[in-house]
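Course assignment 3, question 2. Fill in each field.
Student: A.L.
Task: Predict the tertiary structure for the chain below.
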Amino acid sequence: MLEELDEEQVADFLARWHRAAYEEASQGEKKRVLLAEAIEHSAAIHQLAGNPLLLTMMAILNRTQDLPRDRAELYEQCARLLLHQWKVDVALAPDPELAKASIDYKDKRGLLLRVARTMQSSERGLAGNLIDEETLERALAEGLQGVPNLRPDRAARALIEQLRGRNFMLSAVGGNSYAFVHRTFLEYFCAVEIRERFQTEQSLKIEQLKSEVYGHWSDETWHEVLSLLAGMLAPKFVKEILRWLLERPDPDEGCQHVFLAVRCVGEVRRREDLGAVEQQVFERAQELTRFDLRDAYDPSDWETRQFVSELRTSAVRMVAKVWREAVTTRTWLKARAQSDEDWEVRECAVQELARGWKDDPETLQWIEDRGETP
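Answer field:
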C-alpha cells in the first residue's frame, strides 16, 4: 500500500518526473510549473496529488492537455489511461475461440462498472476495496454477456488469469482476493454506475436516489461516492438532494447529513444553479462551529469533549475549503479566530486563514498582529 505524499514529497516527485520525462529541460520545467500551479489553485487536483499513482496519471495527462477542474472528469481521464493499458486481447489470444472477440474501451469500462456495483452491494458494502475471485469471475462473466464470438465464462476466467500476473485497473492482492488499484477508482466507478442507472437507464427514480442511495448519508464510507455523484448530476437534482439531506433527523448527533451536504456543494461546478439551498447549507455548516450535544454531559468527560471539539473544527475546515472564494468566508474566519468561545475553534480558524490566504499580505499581517503562529 503506497503512503500519501506530503507537499515536499509532491514537489520533489514533480521535479524528478519532469526531468526524466522530457528531453528538453525547458519544456519539462514549463510543464512542471503548470502542474504545480494546478495543484496549488485547484481544490480537486490538490486533493488527489498526494496519491503517487494519481499524481503520476496527472503528470502524464498534463503533457498533452489542461487538467480537468472537476474531480469526476479528472478520474475519468485517469481511468481512461489505465483502461487503455488493460490489453484484454492478450488475455484472450491463447484461446482460438476467444481470440475472435473484440472488446473495446466501452466494454472494459462496463465491466468495471459492474464490478463496482457488485462490490457496493456486497455484505461489506464500501467499507473495503476487496472482492473474492469467485464473485469477481461471476461479475465479469455477466458483464461479457452479449459480446459476439465469446463465451462469457471462459473469457472471465482468462481475464482472472491475466490479473494474477499483472495489475491493470484491478489487481490481485492475495488470498484469492482482488481490488481496484486504488480505492479512488472503486468510488468513482460506483458513482458513475449510480448516475447511469438514474440518468441513462432511468431505472432509478429521484425518490429512490434520495432514500436508497443518499440514504447512506450516516455511513462515512459512502461520502466520497455520494459527493462525487453530486458533481455528476444536473444541479436541479442536486438541489432536491441537498434539501432532503438538511431535513434528515440526526438521532446520533454526528451531523453527517450536513457534512455530506457541504461536500456535495463543493463538487458542483456552477453553484449559482443551486439557488438558495447553497446558502442554507453554508449557514448550517457555520452553525456547527457552535455545536453541542442536546443532553448535558460531565465537563471532565474527555472523550465527549473531544467529539464535540472535533465536530466544530471539522466544520471550520469544511467552510474554509468549500467557500474559500466567497467574500464573507474570510471575515467569518477572522471573527471565529478572534472571539469564538472554543479555543480550538479559534486556533483552527487561524490555521485556515493562513492556509487559504497565504499569499494575501493583509491576512498574514492580521495574523501576525494578533501574535498567532500559523
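Instructor remarks: The mean pLDDT is 90. The first strand starts at residue 131 and ends at 132.
Grade: pending
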